[in-house]
Specification:
The chain has helices at residues 8-14, 29-53, 79-99, 125-137, and strands at 61-66, 104-109. Mean pLDDT is 82; it is low at 1-13. By secondary structure, it is mainly α. It contains four helices and two strands; from the N terminus they run ααβαβα. Helix 3 links the parallel strand 1 (61-66) and strand 2. Helix 2 (29-53) runs parallel beside helix 3. A two-stranded parallel ribbon has the order 1-2. The protein has one domain: NAD(P)-binding Rossmann-like Domain (Rossmann fold), CATH 3.40.50. It is globular, with a radius of gyration of 17 Å.
Length: 144
């Protein structure tokens, strides 16, 4: 499937075709980014729901999607990545709205400062692991 773009900085380096003259330059990046960011997450959510149904209703079930700030607004140089993140955020929010009452949570997570601004650098792997575990164990509080 070619190169994977997992973060904003990589996307900016890979998106020289986005210009003020025509940001909608047709490339394989749209399909590639949707496949990486959305289609694969959609398939994973489908499989998760199948697995969740096999568990007792009392067991908390959690699906975590690693996002970024792009679902909040556009950043130049990240059009195709942003399209995928927005689609995935929609899917995750819908899943959480539909299944929260059944002890199934869907989370779109990203690194943010306390004031809600993006944390482009900062939290390391252990902080991520701790937060993901708190979400899965339901000890993170009632996060949106």
């Amino acid at each position: 499937m070619g190169r994977a773009k997992f973060d904003y900085l990589q996307c900016v380096r890979d998106a020289p075709h986005e210009t003020r003259e025509n940001v909608f330059h047709v490339t394989g990046d749209v399909q590639e980014d949707l496949a990486i960011n959305t289609t694969s997450a959609y398939a994973a959510a489908h499989e998760a729901m199948i697995s969740f149904q096999a568990l007792p209703s009392t067991v908390p079930k959690t699906f975590i999607y690693t996002g970024n700030i792009l679902n909040e607004g556009p950043i130049p140089g990240s059009l195709t990545l942003g399209v995928g993140k927005i689609a995935s955020a929609h899917m995750i929010e819908l899943g959480d709205n539909l299944y929260r009452s059944r002890n199934i949570r869907f989370f779109f997570v990203d690194k943010r400062m306390e004031d809600g601004t993006p944390m482009f650098i900062g939290a390391g792997p252990q902080a991520h692991a701790d937060m993901f575990l708190a979400l899965a164990d339901r000890t993170a509080g009632d996060v949106p």
